[in-house]
Amino acid sequence: MYTLEDKGPSVPKKAFIVGVALDGQSVDEVEEHLDELEALIISCGGSVVGRALQRRRVPDAGTFIGSGKAKEIGEAAKALESEIIIFDDDLTASQVKKLEKTSDSAVMDRSSVILEIFARRARTREARTQVELARLNYLLPRLTRRWSHLSRQVGGIGVRGGEGESQLEADRRMLRQRIQRLKKELKKIEKTRGVQRHSRRDVPVVALAGYTNAGKSTLFNRLTGGDVYAKNQLFATLDSRLRRGALAPQRMVIFADTVGFIRKLPHHLVSSFRSTLEEITEADLVLHVIDRSHPAWREQYQVAREVLEDLGVSSEETLLVYNKIDLLGDASPFLPGEHGSDTTLAVSATTGEGLDTLKATLAQRLFQGDQVSFGPPPSALPQSDSDSP
């Protein structure tokens, strides 16, 4: 049968990672991106044995980093017994081929790692279908003779290259057919989801969205009394989860926990997960959860905000929730001139701090006119005199 494991190289145990600081990027910014790439590799069960960072005005068309640098990195990776070199930027099939030849090492890019994580974490039929579609769309333009064994893995698809047709052309045709089948299957799933949404229209829906590992699942469990898997790990949750929660007596809402976002998220993945992400677009209110303790929280906020805008979610439909404030110590989560309001709140999903105010704010926005009180009003939250940390 056709399996995900045959779509390309998986992440080996030992990796050497490479980042490139282009015009407008600081070295510190790229180093932080490499830290995140390392966390992704660890999520795949691998480890990072070394890293390299290069400054360039623009990427090299042939090898992204230049042939001399590619050879240098290949030698460094071999010295550290690395099994693969992984770039933090997307590479073309031609660049991968030239890099592998120049560095004498297997090469992957960041998108490949993210897709690998999604493939390993997918549990439901919907998630597995969405991930496979994304991986095939990613693979199709990058297909080379390295994967020319695919036709022997298909089983009943019935693709046979005609006389004179190259194996590579047959493999491409096979993948296109499989992509079409997966798209049809997802349309059926989307139709089922649409029926389910229609059946719960009488109950407000609140979707939790944001950067991966911002604490959405932990907050979801706090708001619903649920036990959704929550771990300090990138992409711990892939499948959207729905559960009822009470904001006040007789005031129930449905909370939706959704897949997290990340910088440089493969666009094929966003497209394939459309049916899952529609839980966000169809919600009455979106909680944009932000890990306020993270050093790069502003960038993470911006990345998630851009994805939400691409999905058609306006800022008016969004409530910003600064999470993990228990990790800030005595520092205020709010910026100078910013304070708690009906559009920005601060909580700790771990300790429960600020949850009463969050529930009260949700009740006031979703059930206007109701007198609901869980604690101090949002305006009573502390204002900040400094930007920290």
Quick take:
With 389 residues, the protein is an alpha/beta fold.
The main pleated sheet reads as:
6 strands, mixed
Structural class: alpha/beta
Summarize the amount of helix as a percent range. Answer: 25-40%
- Counted by DSSP, the helix tally is 11
The sequence of SSEs as H and E is: EHEHEHEHHHEHEEHHEHEEH
CA radius of gyration is: 23 Å
What's the overall average pLDDT, rounded? 81
Strand order of the largest sheet: 6-7-5-8-9-10
Shape descriptor: globular
Low-confidence stretches: 1-7, 147-164, 370-389
Strand content: 15-25%
Oligomeric state, counting identical vs distinct chains? single chain
**Total DSSP E strands:** 10
How would you describe what is shown here?
By secondary structure, this protein is α/β, with parallel strands linked by helices. The protein has eleven helices and ten strands. A six-stranded mixed β-sheet has the order 6-7-5-8-9-10, with helices on both faces. The protein has a four-stranded parallel β-sheet with strand order 2-1-3-4, with helices on both faces. Strand 8 (285-291), helix 10 and strand 9 form a beta-alpha-beta unit.
